[in-house]
């Protein structure tokens, strides 16, 4: 029997929800753009807005900050909402497969396993799967894309400093 990595086997259950995952990734990209934009606008805060001679830029920079936080919030909401939905659907599919598997077991299986063990597997372990699919993987992807955005911004501002 070929041993498949558990995460790979788990992410097979996400195949029917590729469209939602695609939109979640788009939300993550919006979040990353908003995060990198906030880092980028700091340049204008120090160069223009804090300079006493250029006070006309204060309102523009303030609205830019508000807009970027709004963009970041929209991206975070969309990606979190869609990832939670995918996580719940994956858990439903895993539970259905698990119930089908348990119901197909022999009487000897049920005499060896206690009710508590079976209930723990069906409820607790599947809830941990939901947390991995919806929260942990989503946060990891969202923050990784933000890190890529920060790195791209750093190379855009000063490539030599970024290399060092």
What fraction of residues sit in β-strands? under 5%
* Number of helical regions: 6
User: Segments where pLDDT lies below 50 for 5+ residues?
Assistant: none
Secondary structure tally: strands: 0
- Secondary-structure element sequence? HHHHHH
The biggest beta sheet, please? none
Structural class: mainly alpha
Helix amount: over 70%
Taken from the alpha-carbon principal axes, the silhouette is elongated
Radius of gyration: 23 Å
Question: What labels would you give this structure?
Answer:
mainly alpha, 0% strand, 164 residues
Could you describe the 3D structure shown?
The chain is mainly α and 164 residues long. Helix content is 85%, strand content 0%. The protein has six helices and no strands. Helix 2 (18-49) runs antiparallel to helix 3. The longest helix is centred in the middle third of the chain and has 47 residues, at 57-103. The chain is elongated, with a radius of gyration of 23 Å.
Brief synopsis:
This protein is mainly alpha-helical.
What is the strand and helix layout of this fold?
Layout: H1 6-11, H2 18-49, H3 57-103, H4 107-112, H5 115-157, H6 159-163
Helix pairs in contact: 2-3, 2-5, 3-5
């Amino acid at each position: 029997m070929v041993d498949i990595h558990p995460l790979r086997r788990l992410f097979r259950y996400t195949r029917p929800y590729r469209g939602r995952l695609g939109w979640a990734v788009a939300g993550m990209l919006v979040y990353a753009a908003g995060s990198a934009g906030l880092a980028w606008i700091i340049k204008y805060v120090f160069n223009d807005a804090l300079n006493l001679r250029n006070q006309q830029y204060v309102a523009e920079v303030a609205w830019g900050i508000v807009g970027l936080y709004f963009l970041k919030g929209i991206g975070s909401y969309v990606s979190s909402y869609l990832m939670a939905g995918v996580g719940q659907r994956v858990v439903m599919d895993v539970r259905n497969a698990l119930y089908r598997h348990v119901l197909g077991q022999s009487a000897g299986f049920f005499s060896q396993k206690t009710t508590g063990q079976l209930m723990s597997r069906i409820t607790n372990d599947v809830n941990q799967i939901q947390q991995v699919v919806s929260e942990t993987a989503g946060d990891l992807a969202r923050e990784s894309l933000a890190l890529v955005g920060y790195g791209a911004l750093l190379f855009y501002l000063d490539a030599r400093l970024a290399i060092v």
